[in-house]
Amino acid sequence: MGNRHRWALLAATIGLSMHVATAAPPEKPPTRVFLFAGQSNMVGADADAARIDDYPEFVGAGAPQKDVLFTYLPEDAQAAVPKWGPLRPRGPFGPELTFARRLTSQGCGPLAIIKSAVGGTTVAVDWNPDAPEKGQKLYPRTIRLVKEALAKLKARGVRYRLEGVVWHQGENDMLDQALCPQYAAGLEKLIGRLRADLAAPDLKWYLAEVSEKGIWGMDNRGQLGMLRREQEKILRADTLVRFVPTSHLAFEVMGDGQPHYHFGTQGQLQLGEACADAYLREIDRETPVTDRRFPDGLPVAPRGRIRLFVLAGQRTMEGEDAHVAEITDHAAFSALARDQPKVLFQYSLGGGVRTSPDWEPLGPVGFLGSFGPELSFGARIRAATPPGEGVAIVKFTHSGAQGPDWSPEGSVESHRDLYRRWLDFVRGARDDLIQRGFDVRIEGIVWTTGENDTFFPPYAQQHSQLIKHLVEKTRADLDQPQLRWVIAAQHGKSPWGNVVAVNEGLEGLARADAGIVVIDTSRLPYLQAQYGTEGTLRLGAAMAKAFADR
Q1: What is the pLDDT of residues 217-245, one digit of tens each?
Q2: For 382-407, what is each residue's pLDDT tens digit?
Protein backbone atom coordinates (compact mmCIF):
# COMPACT_ATOMS: atom_id res chain seq x y z
CA MET A 1 0.00 0.00 0.00
CA GLY A 2 1.44 3.41 -0.98
CA ASN A 3 1.87 6.32 1.42
CA ARG A 4 -0.98 8.21 -0.27
CA HIS A 5 -3.35 5.33 0.45
CA ARG A 6 -2.10 4.97 4.02
CA TRP A 7 -2.73 8.67 4.71
CA ALA A 8 -6.17 8.45 3.13
CA LEU A 9 -7.08 5.46 5.31
CA LEU A 10 -5.76 7.21 8.43
CA ALA A 11 -7.71 10.36 7.61
CA ALA A 12 -10.87 8.34 7.09
CA THR A 13 -10.35 6.58 10.42
CA ILE A 14 -9.77 9.85 12.25
CA GLY A 15 -12.80 11.36 10.60
CA LEU A 16 -14.94 8.43 11.72
CA SER A 17 -13.67 8.73 15.29
CA MET A 18 -14.40 12.43 15.33
CA HIS A 19 -17.87 11.75 13.99
CA VAL A 20 -18.59 9.25 16.79
CA ALA A 21 -17.23 11.58 19.46
CA THR A 22 -19.43 14.48 18.36
CA ALA A 23 -22.65 12.49 17.87
CA ALA A 24 -25.71 14.03 19.58
CA PRO A 25 -26.54 12.57 23.01
CA PRO A 26 -29.64 10.35 23.18
CA GLU A 27 -32.88 12.31 23.50
CA LYS A 28 -34.34 12.53 27.01
CA PRO A 29 -37.59 10.62 27.49
CA PRO A 30 -40.72 12.76 27.57
CA THR A 31 -41.85 14.11 30.93
CA ARG A 32 -44.70 12.01 32.33
CA VAL A 33 -47.51 14.36 33.36
CA PHE A 34 -50.14 13.30 35.90
CA LEU A 35 -53.28 15.11 36.98
CA PHE A 36 -54.20 14.63 40.66
CA ALA A 37 -57.83 15.57 41.30
CA GLY A 38 -60.64 15.18 43.83
CA GLN A 39 -61.83 16.56 47.14
CA SER A 40 -60.49 16.85 50.73
CA ASN A 41 -58.59 13.57 50.85
CA MET A 42 -56.84 14.59 47.64
CA VAL A 43 -56.16 18.05 49.05
CA GLY A 44 -54.55 16.37 52.08
CA ALA A 45 -56.80 17.48 54.93
CA ASP A 46 -55.31 16.61 58.36
CA ALA A 47 -51.94 15.76 56.77
CA ASP A 48 -49.15 17.67 58.51
CA ALA A 49 -45.78 18.02 56.76
CA ALA A 50 -44.09 18.53 60.14
CA ARG A 51 -45.04 14.94 61.09
CA ILE A 52 -43.73 13.15 58.01
CA ASP A 53 -40.47 12.11 59.64
CA ASP A 54 -42.39 10.55 62.55
CA TYR A 55 -42.99 7.54 60.31
CA PRO A 56 -39.86 5.45 59.70
CA GLU A 57 -40.94 4.35 56.23
CA PHE A 58 -41.16 7.97 55.06
CA VAL A 59 -38.27 9.82 56.66
CA GLY A 60 -37.20 12.52 54.20
CA ALA A 61 -40.35 12.28 52.06
CA GLY A 62 -41.17 15.91 52.79
CA ALA A 63 -37.98 17.25 51.20
CA PRO A 64 -38.39 19.25 47.97
CA GLN A 65 -38.19 17.02 44.88
CA LYS A 66 -36.25 19.29 42.57
CA ASP A 67 -36.54 16.94 39.59
CA VAL A 68 -40.35 16.78 39.78
CA LEU A 69 -42.34 19.72 38.44
CA PHE A 70 -45.52 20.78 40.23
CA THR A 71 -48.35 23.23 39.72
CA TYR A 72 -51.82 23.46 41.19
CA LEU A 73 -55.27 25.00 41.05
CA PRO A 74 -55.28 28.48 42.64
CA GLU A 75 -57.93 29.14 45.28
CA ASP A 76 -59.08 32.25 43.44
CA ALA A 77 -60.89 31.17 40.27
CA GLN A 78 -59.68 34.34 38.52
CA ALA A 79 -56.03 33.99 39.53
CA ALA A 80 -53.32 33.02 37.07
CA VAL A 81 -52.12 29.42 37.01
CA PRO A 82 -49.03 29.21 39.23
CA LYS A 83 -45.66 28.71 37.57
CA TRP A 84 -44.13 25.26 37.55
CA GLY A 85 -41.89 24.68 40.56
CA PRO A 86 -40.30 21.77 42.42
CA LEU A 87 -42.70 19.40 44.18
CA ARG A 88 -42.80 20.03 47.94
CA PRO A 89 -45.43 20.14 50.70
CA ARG A 90 -47.52 23.30 50.68
CA GLY A 91 -49.20 23.17 54.09
CA PRO A 92 -51.51 20.14 53.83
CA PHE A 93 -50.21 17.64 51.31
CA GLY A 94 -51.82 14.83 49.38
CA PRO A 95 -50.63 11.59 47.78
CA GLU A 96 -48.51 13.44 45.19
CA LEU A 97 -45.38 13.48 47.41
CA THR A 98 -44.86 9.75 47.79
CA PHE A 99 -46.37 8.99 44.38
CA ALA A 100 -43.56 10.96 42.73
CA ARG A 101 -40.97 9.64 45.16
CA ARG A 102 -41.87 6.02 44.39
CA LEU A 103 -41.91 6.56 40.61
CA THR A 104 -38.59 8.40 40.66
CA SER A 105 -37.02 5.56 42.67
CA GLN A 106 -38.16 3.17 39.92
CA GLY A 107 -36.55 5.24 37.17
CA CYS A 108 -39.81 6.67 35.83
CA GLY A 109 -38.71 10.30 35.59
CA PRO A 110 -38.87 12.99 34.53
CA LEU A 111 -42.23 13.77 36.12
CA ALA A 112 -44.67 16.67 36.33
CA ILE A 113 -47.78 16.81 38.51
CA ILE A 114 -50.81 19.07 38.10
CA LYS A 115 -53.12 19.14 41.11
CA SER A 116 -56.76 20.24 41.12
CA ALA A 117 -58.57 19.42 44.36
CA VAL A 118 -61.13 21.22 46.52
CA GLY A 119 -62.70 19.78 49.67
CA GLY A 120 -66.41 19.04 49.95
CA THR A 121 -67.06 18.85 46.22
CA THR A 122 -69.35 16.57 44.22
CA VAL A 123 -69.23 14.98 40.80
CA ALA A 124 -72.90 15.77 40.39
CA VAL A 125 -72.40 19.54 40.65
CA ASP A 126 -68.87 20.89 41.22
CA TRP A 127 -67.14 18.60 38.69
CA ASN A 128 -70.03 18.35 36.23
CA PRO A 129 -68.92 19.42 32.72
CA ASP A 130 -72.54 20.23 31.86
CA ALA A 131 -73.04 22.58 34.82
CA PRO A 132 -70.06 24.97 34.57
CA GLU A 133 -71.93 27.81 36.25
CA LYS A 134 -72.72 25.84 39.45
CA GLY A 135 -70.80 25.01 42.60
CA GLN A 136 -67.02 25.27 42.48
CA LYS A 137 -66.97 25.22 38.64
CA LEU A 138 -64.13 22.72 38.85
CA TYR A 139 -64.42 21.21 35.41
CA PRO A 140 -63.72 24.41 33.42
CA ARG A 141 -61.17 25.54 36.00
CA THR A 142 -59.32 22.21 35.75
CA ILE A 143 -59.32 22.20 31.95
CA ARG A 144 -57.86 25.70 31.97
CA LEU A 145 -55.27 24.65 34.57
CA VAL A 146 -54.12 21.63 32.58
CA LYS A 147 -54.00 23.37 29.22
CA GLU A 148 -52.10 26.38 30.53
CA ALA A 149 -49.68 24.19 32.48
CA LEU A 150 -48.96 22.05 29.42
CA ALA A 151 -48.49 25.18 27.28
CA LYS A 152 -45.89 26.41 29.74
CA LEU A 153 -44.04 23.10 29.48
CA LYS A 154 -44.05 23.39 25.71
CA ALA A 155 -42.79 26.97 25.88
CA ARG A 156 -39.88 25.75 27.99
CA GLY A 157 -39.00 23.18 25.36
CA VAL A 158 -40.12 20.27 27.53
CA ARG A 159 -41.40 17.22 25.67
CA TYR A 160 -44.25 15.67 27.65
CA ARG A 161 -46.81 12.88 27.63
CA LEU A 162 -50.10 13.13 29.53
CA GLU A 163 -49.88 9.88 31.46
CA GLY A 164 -52.85 9.53 33.76
CA VAL A 165 -55.34 10.96 36.25
CA VAL A 166 -55.15 10.01 39.94
CA TRP A 167 -58.60 10.54 41.46
CA HIS A 168 -59.83 10.44 45.06
CA GLN A 169 -63.34 11.73 45.55
CA GLY A 170 -66.86 10.57 46.28
CA GLU A 171 -67.60 11.20 49.94
CA ASN A 172 -70.00 14.09 49.34
CA ASP A 173 -71.87 12.34 46.51
CA MET A 174 -72.12 9.28 48.76
CA LEU A 175 -73.67 11.19 51.65
CA ASP A 176 -76.54 12.47 49.48
CA GLN A 177 -79.14 9.76 48.85
CA ALA A 178 -80.23 11.50 45.66
CA LEU A 179 -76.71 11.90 44.24
CA CYS A 180 -75.15 8.56 45.16
CA PRO A 181 -77.09 6.45 42.59
CA GLN A 182 -75.93 8.86 39.86
CA TYR A 183 -72.24 8.63 40.69
CA ALA A 184 -71.16 6.19 37.98
CA ALA A 185 -72.94 8.13 35.23
CA GLY A 186 -71.52 11.42 36.48
CA LEU A 187 -67.94 10.23 36.74
CA GLU A 188 -68.12 8.44 33.37
CA LYS A 189 -69.25 11.73 31.80
CA LEU A 190 -66.42 13.61 33.49
CA ILE A 191 -63.81 11.08 32.36
CA GLY A 192 -65.05 11.06 28.78
CA ARG A 193 -65.24 14.84 28.50
CA LEU A 194 -61.80 15.32 30.01
CA ARG A 195 -60.26 12.90 27.52
CA ALA A 196 -61.99 14.64 24.63
CA ASP A 197 -61.09 18.18 25.72
CA LEU A 198 -57.45 17.24 26.28
CA ALA A 199 -57.28 15.21 23.05
CA ALA A 200 -56.18 12.19 25.09
CA PRO A 201 -58.64 9.38 24.25
CA ASP A 202 -56.51 6.71 25.93
CA LEU A 203 -55.88 8.61 29.16
CA LYS A 204 -55.87 6.20 32.10
CA TRP A 205 -57.72 6.95 35.30
CA TYR A 206 -56.60 5.63 38.71
CA LEU A 207 -59.69 5.54 40.91
CA ALA A 208 -58.80 5.44 44.61
CA GLU A 209 -61.33 3.82 46.92
CA VAL A 210 -63.22 5.91 49.48
CA SER A 211 -61.81 4.40 52.66
CA GLU A 212 -64.11 2.25 54.74
CA LYS A 213 -62.23 3.32 57.89
CA GLY A 214 -63.97 6.69 57.86
CA ILE A 215 -67.05 7.53 59.89
CA TRP A 216 -69.16 6.81 56.80
CA GLY A 217 -68.12 3.16 57.09
CA MET A 218 -70.24 3.07 60.23
CA ASP A 219 -73.19 5.46 60.17
CA ASN A 220 -73.48 5.52 56.36
CA ARG A 221 -72.77 1.88 55.52
CA GLY A 222 -75.63 1.58 53.08
CA GLN A 223 -74.58 4.67 51.17
CA LEU A 224 -70.91 3.60 51.20
CA GLY A 225 -71.87 0.21 49.78
CA MET A 226 -73.88 1.96 47.06
CA LEU A 227 -70.91 4.18 46.17
CA ARG A 228 -68.68 1.11 45.89
CA ARG A 229 -71.19 -0.51 43.53
CA GLU A 230 -71.22 2.70 41.46
CA GLN A 231 -67.43 2.60 41.26
CA GLU A 232 -67.58 -1.02 40.14
CA LYS A 233 -69.93 0.01 37.32
CA ILE A 234 -67.27 2.42 36.10
CA LEU A 235 -64.60 -0.26 36.25
CA ARG A 236 -66.73 -2.61 34.18
CA ALA A 237 -67.65 0.05 31.62
CA ASP A 238 -64.22 1.62 31.07
CA THR A 239 -61.20 -0.60 30.44
CA LEU A 240 -58.84 2.32 31.03
CA VAL A 241 -59.91 2.84 34.67
CA ARG A 242 -57.92 1.14 37.43
CA PHE A 243 -59.06 0.65 41.04
CA VAL A 244 -56.73 1.51 43.94
CA PRO A 245 -57.76 -0.10 47.29
CA THR A 246 -57.29 2.19 50.29
CA SER A 247 -59.19 0.73 53.27
CA HIS A 248 -56.04 -0.99 54.55
CA LEU A 249 -54.17 2.33 54.78
CA ALA A 250 -53.78 4.35 57.98
CA PHE A 251 -56.62 6.74 58.74
CA GLU A 252 -56.45 9.68 61.12
CA VAL A 253 -58.24 9.30 64.44
CA MET A 254 -58.62 12.52 66.35
CA GLY A 255 -57.22 12.40 69.86
CA ASP A 256 -60.50 13.40 71.49
CA GLY A 257 -62.40 10.60 69.80
CA GLN A 258 -63.95 12.79 67.13
CA PRO A 259 -65.13 11.15 63.90
CA HIS A 260 -62.41 10.38 61.41
CA TYR A 261 -62.82 11.76 57.92
CA HIS A 262 -59.31 11.89 56.44
CA PHE A 263 -56.22 9.77 55.89
CA GLY A 264 -54.05 12.22 57.78
CA THR A 265 -50.25 12.25 57.58
CA GLN A 266 -49.38 8.55 57.55
CA GLY A 267 -52.35 7.58 55.41
CA GLN A 268 -51.55 10.19 52.75
CA LEU A 269 -47.98 8.94 52.54
CA GLN A 270 -49.25 5.39 52.09
CA LEU A 271 -51.94 6.48 49.61
CA GLY A 272 -49.33 8.02 47.32
CA GLU A 273 -47.38 4.77 47.23
CA ALA A 274 -50.55 2.73 46.63
CA CYS A 275 -51.42 4.90 43.61
CA ALA A 276 -47.83 4.72 42.36
CA ASP A 277 -47.84 0.93 42.62
CA ALA A 278 -51.05 0.81 40.57
CA TYR A 279 -49.34 2.82 37.84
CA LEU A 280 -46.15 0.75 38.02
CA ARG A 281 -48.21 -2.42 37.58
CA GLU A 282 -49.73 -0.85 34.49
CA ILE A 283 -46.32 -0.31 32.88
CA ASP A 284 -44.82 -3.61 34.16
CA ARG A 285 -42.40 -1.84 36.48
CA GLU A 286 -43.82 -2.90 39.83
CA THR A 287 -41.26 -3.81 42.49
CA PRO A 288 -41.49 -7.59 42.84
CA VAL A 289 -42.60 -8.97 46.20
CA THR A 290 -39.82 -10.94 47.90
CA ASP A 291 -40.33 -14.69 47.71
CA ARG A 292 -40.43 -15.68 51.39
CA ARG A 293 -41.49 -19.30 51.00
CA PHE A 294 -39.52 -22.06 52.69
CA PRO A 295 -36.98 -23.14 50.04
CA ASP A 296 -36.51 -26.74 51.26
CA GLY A 297 -39.87 -27.82 52.59
CA LEU A 298 -41.49 -27.14 55.96
CA PRO A 299 -39.17 -27.35 59.00
CA VAL A 300 -41.33 -29.93 60.80
CA ALA A 301 -40.60 -33.63 61.13
CA PRO A 302 -42.62 -35.80 58.72
CA ARG A 303 -46.04 -36.71 60.13
CA GLY A 304 -45.25 -34.51 63.13
CA ARG A 305 -47.77 -32.65 65.24
CA ILE A 306 -48.40 -28.97 64.46
CA ARG A 307 -50.10 -26.51 66.81
CA LEU A 308 -52.15 -24.16 64.62
CA PHE A 309 -53.24 -20.74 65.87
CA VAL A 310 -55.56 -18.28 64.09
CA LEU A 311 -55.07 -14.54 64.55
CA ALA A 312 -57.76 -12.21 63.21
CA GLY A 313 -59.28 -8.79 63.61
CA GLN A 314 -59.00 -5.16 62.59
CA ARG A 315 -56.48 -2.32 63.03
CA THR A 316 -54.57 -3.64 66.05
CA MET A 317 -54.20 -7.12 64.61
CA GLU A 318 -53.09 -5.76 61.27
CA GLY A 319 -50.50 -3.56 62.97
CA GLU A 320 -51.35 0.06 62.23
CA ASP A 321 -48.72 2.34 63.86
CA ALA A 322 -46.45 -0.61 64.76
CA HIS A 323 -43.28 -0.08 62.72
CA VAL A 324 -40.84 -2.84 61.82
CA ALA A 325 -38.00 -0.30 61.77
CA GLU A 326 -38.56 0.35 65.50
CA ILE A 327 -38.49 -3.27 66.72
CA THR A 328 -34.76 -3.19 67.42
CA ASP A 329 -35.29 -0.18 69.71
CA HIS A 330 -36.79 -2.62 72.25
CA ALA A 331 -34.05 -4.97 73.49
CA ALA A 332 -36.37 -7.68 74.78
CA PHE A 333 -37.90 -8.07 71.32
CA SER A 334 -35.08 -7.02 68.97
CA ALA A 335 -34.64 -10.55 67.54
CA LEU A 336 -38.17 -10.36 66.13
CA ALA A 337 -37.01 -8.03 63.38
CA ARG A 338 -35.65 -11.22 61.77
CA ASP A 339 -37.54 -14.26 60.50
CA GLN A 340 -38.42 -17.09 62.89
CA PRO A 341 -37.63 -20.14 60.74
CA LYS A 342 -39.27 -22.62 63.14
CA VAL A 343 -42.72 -21.00 63.01
CA LEU A 344 -44.93 -21.47 59.92
CA PHE A 345 -46.90 -18.44 58.74
CA GLN A 346 -49.70 -17.74 56.28
CA TYR A 347 -51.60 -14.50 55.99
CA SER A 348 -54.25 -12.42 54.25
CA LEU A 349 -53.78 -8.74 55.11
CA GLY A 350 -55.78 -5.61 54.40
CA GLY A 351 -58.84 -7.52 53.27
CA GLY A 352 -56.77 -9.54 50.80
CA VAL A 353 -54.50 -6.76 49.50
CA ARG A 354 -51.47 -8.89 50.43
CA THR A 355 -51.68 -12.68 50.76
CA SER A 356 -49.00 -15.30 51.19
CA PRO A 357 -48.67 -17.79 48.31
CA ASP A 358 -47.61 -20.60 50.66
CA TRP A 359 -46.19 -21.19 54.12
CA GLU A 360 -43.39 -18.80 55.08
CA PRO A 361 -41.25 -18.35 58.18
CA LEU A 362 -42.92 -16.01 60.66
CA GLY A 363 -41.47 -12.52 60.35
CA PRO A 364 -42.03 -9.01 58.99
CA VAL A 365 -43.50 -9.47 55.52
CA GLY A 366 -42.95 -5.97 54.10
CA PHE A 367 -46.58 -4.87 54.21
CA LEU A 368 -46.69 -1.09 54.81
CA GLY A 369 -43.57 -1.45 56.98
CA SER A 370 -45.76 -2.62 59.86
CA PHE A 371 -46.43 -5.77 61.88
CA GLY A 372 -49.01 -7.12 64.29
CA PRO A 373 -48.89 -9.09 67.55
CA GLU A 374 -48.07 -12.29 65.66
CA LEU A 375 -44.29 -11.79 65.95
CA SER A 376 -44.07 -11.84 69.75
CA PHE A 377 -47.01 -14.27 70.02
CA GLY A 378 -45.26 -16.78 67.76
CA ALA A 379 -41.93 -16.45 69.55
CA ARG A 380 -43.49 -17.09 72.97
CA ILE A 381 -45.61 -20.01 71.74
CA ARG A 382 -42.60 -21.57 70.00
CA ALA A 383 -40.53 -21.28 73.20
CA ALA A 384 -43.28 -23.09 75.14
CA THR A 385 -43.72 -25.86 72.54
CA PRO A 386 -41.74 -29.15 72.77
CA PRO A 387 -38.95 -29.36 70.14
CA GLY A 388 -40.62 -32.26 68.33
CA GLU A 389 -43.79 -30.30 67.63
CA GLY A 390 -44.40 -27.56 65.08
CA VAL A 391 -46.11 -24.18 65.41
CA ALA A 392 -48.14 -22.54 62.65
CA ILE A 393 -49.94 -19.20 62.58
CA VAL A 394 -52.69 -18.10 60.19
CA LYS A 395 -53.42 -14.36 60.18
CA PHE A 396 -56.48 -12.79 58.54
CA THR A 397 -57.18 -9.08 58.90
CA HIS A 398 -59.16 -6.21 57.48
CA SER A 399 -58.31 -3.04 59.36
CA GLY A 400 -61.20 -1.09 57.84
CA ALA A 401 -63.93 -3.57 58.75
CA GLN A 402 -66.77 -3.23 61.22
CA GLY A 403 -68.64 -5.87 63.18
CA PRO A 404 -71.38 -6.55 60.62
CA ASP A 405 -68.70 -7.41 58.04
CA TRP A 406 -67.75 -10.45 60.16
CA SER A 407 -71.34 -11.65 60.54
CA PRO A 408 -71.61 -15.35 59.61
CA GLU A 409 -74.90 -14.55 57.89
CA GLY A 410 -73.37 -11.68 55.93
CA SER A 411 -74.65 -8.13 55.80
CA VAL A 412 -76.93 -6.63 53.18
CA GLU A 413 -75.01 -3.36 53.56
CA SER A 414 -71.58 -4.90 53.02
CA HIS A 415 -69.80 -6.30 49.99
CA ARG A 416 -67.10 -7.86 52.15
CA ASP A 417 -68.59 -11.04 53.67
CA LEU A 418 -65.43 -11.49 55.75
CA TYR A 419 -66.62 -14.46 57.77
CA ARG A 420 -66.89 -16.75 54.77
CA ARG A 421 -63.57 -15.58 53.34
CA TRP A 422 -61.87 -15.94 56.72
CA LEU A 423 -63.27 -19.42 57.33
CA ASP A 424 -62.22 -20.59 53.87
CA PHE A 425 -58.71 -19.21 54.43
CA VAL A 426 -58.33 -20.97 57.79
CA ARG A 427 -59.70 -24.26 56.48
CA GLY A 428 -57.43 -24.05 53.45
CA ALA A 429 -54.33 -23.61 55.61
CA ARG A 430 -55.34 -26.40 58.00
CA ASP A 431 -56.24 -28.82 55.22
CA ASP A 432 -53.00 -28.09 53.39
CA LEU A 433 -50.98 -29.18 56.41
CA ILE A 434 -53.14 -32.29 56.82
CA GLN A 435 -52.64 -33.20 53.15
CA ARG A 436 -48.89 -32.87 53.65
CA GLY A 437 -49.17 -35.57 56.28
CA PHE A 438 -49.04 -33.57 59.51
CA ASP A 439 -51.15 -34.07 62.62
CA VAL A 440 -52.92 -30.69 62.90
CA ARG A 441 -55.46 -29.23 65.26
CA ILE A 442 -56.47 -25.60 65.67
CA GLU A 443 -55.54 -24.70 69.24
CA GLY A 444 -57.22 -21.35 69.39
CA ILE A 445 -58.41 -18.14 67.80
CA VAL A 446 -56.83 -14.85 68.88
CA TRP A 447 -58.98 -11.80 68.23
CA THR A 448 -58.52 -8.05 68.57
CA THR A 449 -61.93 -6.58 69.11
CA GLY A 450 -63.10 -3.87 66.74
CA GLU A 451 -61.99 -0.28 67.22
CA ASN A 452 -64.63 1.04 64.82
CA ASP A 453 -67.28 -1.01 66.61
CA THR A 454 -66.30 0.56 69.92
CA PHE A 455 -66.50 4.07 68.49
CA PHE A 456 -69.97 3.74 66.99
CA PRO A 457 -72.67 3.34 69.72
CA PRO A 458 -75.04 1.02 67.81
CA TYR A 459 -72.18 -1.40 67.11
CA ALA A 460 -70.78 -1.06 70.64
CA GLN A 461 -74.15 -2.09 72.11
CA GLN A 462 -74.26 -5.20 69.92
CA HIS A 463 -70.60 -6.12 70.15
CA SER A 464 -70.68 -8.83 72.81
CA GLN A 465 -73.57 -10.58 71.07
CA LEU A 466 -71.72 -10.41 67.76
CA ILE A 467 -68.64 -12.00 69.35
CA LYS A 468 -70.74 -14.65 71.09
CA HIS A 469 -72.31 -15.62 67.78
CA LEU A 470 -68.91 -15.56 66.06
CA VAL A 471 -67.44 -17.88 68.70
CA GLU A 472 -70.30 -20.35 68.46
CA LYS A 473 -70.33 -20.37 64.66
CA THR A 474 -66.58 -20.90 64.25
CA ARG A 475 -66.65 -23.77 66.73
CA ALA A 476 -69.46 -25.40 64.77
CA ASP A 477 -68.04 -24.73 61.31
CA LEU A 478 -64.54 -25.91 62.26
CA ASP A 479 -66.01 -28.91 64.12
CA GLN A 480 -64.22 -28.00 67.35
CA PRO A 481 -66.89 -27.36 70.03
CA GLN A 482 -64.27 -26.51 72.68
CA LEU A 483 -62.17 -24.21 70.49
CA ARG A 484 -60.52 -21.54 72.64
CA TRP A 485 -60.89 -17.83 71.97
CA VAL A 486 -58.46 -15.26 73.34
CA ILE A 487 -59.78 -11.71 72.93
CA ALA A 488 -57.87 -8.48 73.61
CA ALA A 489 -60.03 -5.92 75.38
CA GLN A 490 -60.03 -2.32 74.26
CA HIS A 491 -57.31 -0.24 75.91
CA GLY A 492 -58.61 2.16 78.55
CA LYS A 493 -56.67 5.07 77.01
CA SER A 494 -58.16 4.64 73.57
CA PRO A 495 -60.18 7.60 72.30
CA TRP A 496 -63.35 5.62 71.62
CA GLY A 497 -66.33 6.65 73.69
CA ASN A 498 -67.77 3.22 74.58
CA VAL A 499 -64.70 1.34 75.84
CA VAL A 500 -66.08 0.47 79.28
CA ALA A 501 -69.35 -0.92 77.93
CA VAL A 502 -67.61 -3.00 75.24
CA ASN A 503 -65.09 -4.45 77.71
CA GLU A 504 -67.77 -5.26 80.28
CA GLY A 505 -69.69 -7.14 77.59
CA LEU A 506 -66.61 -9.18 76.68
CA GLU A 507 -65.88 -9.97 80.34
CA GLY A 508 -69.46 -11.20 80.70
CA LEU A 509 -68.87 -13.61 77.82
CA ALA A 510 -65.72 -14.94 79.49
CA ARG A 511 -67.54 -15.55 82.77
CA ALA A 512 -70.22 -17.53 80.96
CA ASP A 513 -67.86 -19.52 78.69
CA ALA A 514 -64.73 -21.18 80.06
CA GLY A 515 -63.30 -21.35 76.53
CA ILE A 516 -63.11 -17.55 76.23
CA VAL A 517 -60.28 -15.51 77.76
CA VAL A 518 -60.32 -11.70 77.70
CA ILE A 519 -56.92 -10.02 78.04
CA ASP A 520 -56.69 -6.93 80.20
CA THR A 521 -54.69 -4.50 78.05
CA SER A 522 -54.83 -1.47 80.35
CA ARG A 523 -51.17 -1.73 81.43
CA LEU A 524 -49.77 -2.02 77.93
CA PRO A 525 -48.06 0.96 76.24
CA TYR A 526 -50.48 2.91 74.07
CA LEU A 527 -50.27 5.81 71.63
CA GLN A 528 -53.00 8.24 70.63
CA ALA A 529 -55.27 5.65 69.03
CA GLN A 530 -53.17 2.48 68.60
CA TYR A 531 -50.70 0.38 70.57
CA GLY A 532 -47.67 1.43 68.55
CA THR A 533 -44.52 -0.66 68.25
CA GLU A 534 -43.83 -1.51 71.90
CA GLY A 535 -47.49 -1.96 72.77
CA THR A 536 -48.01 -4.37 69.87
CA LEU A 537 -44.98 -6.42 70.87
CA ARG A 538 -46.19 -6.68 74.46
CA LEU A 539 -49.74 -7.43 73.34
CA GLY A 540 -48.56 -10.47 71.36
CA ALA A 541 -46.66 -11.75 74.39
CA ALA A 542 -49.78 -11.30 76.56
CA MET A 543 -51.83 -13.26 74.05
CA ALA A 544 -49.35 -16.14 74.16
CA LYS A 545 -49.35 -16.09 77.95
CA ALA A 546 -53.13 -16.51 77.94
CA PHE A 547 -52.64 -19.90 76.26
CA ALA A 548 -49.80 -20.90 78.55
CA ASP A 549 -51.84 -20.08 81.66
CA ARG A 550 -54.77 -22.35 80.75
Answers
A1: 777 888 998 999 999 999 999 999 999 99
A2: 999 999 999 999 999 998 888 889 99
Residue 420 CA to chain centroid, in angstroms? 22
Which neighbouring-strand residues pair with 60?
A: none
Residue 335's CB is within 10 A of a number of other CB atoms, namely: 12
Cα–Cα distance, 146 to 81 (Å, whole number):
9
Q: Residue 255: what pLDDT? A: 60
Q: Is the pTM above the cut of 0.90?
A: yes
Alpha-carbon span 7 to 15, nearest angstrom: 12
List Cα–Cα distances, 290 to 57, 287, 357, 444, 463, in angstroms: 17, 9, 11, 30, 38
Q: Can you give the residue range of the structural domain that contains 100? A: 38-282
Same domain, 309 and 249: no
Residues 6+ apart with CB under 8 A from 254: 260, 495
Q: Which of 25, 26, 36 is nearest to 68 (CA)?
A: 36
How many C-beta atoms lie closer than 10 Å to residue 23's C-beta? 8
Q: Does residue 471 form part of some domain?
A: yes
Tens of pLDDT, residue by residue over 287-325, are 888 999 999 999 999 999 999 999 999 999 999 999 999
Q: What is the β-pairing status of strands 354-355 and 340-349?
A: antiparallel
406 domain residue, yes or no:
yes
DSSP reduced 3-state for 421: helix
3 state SS of 99: helix
| Cis amide leading into 64 (omega within 30) | no
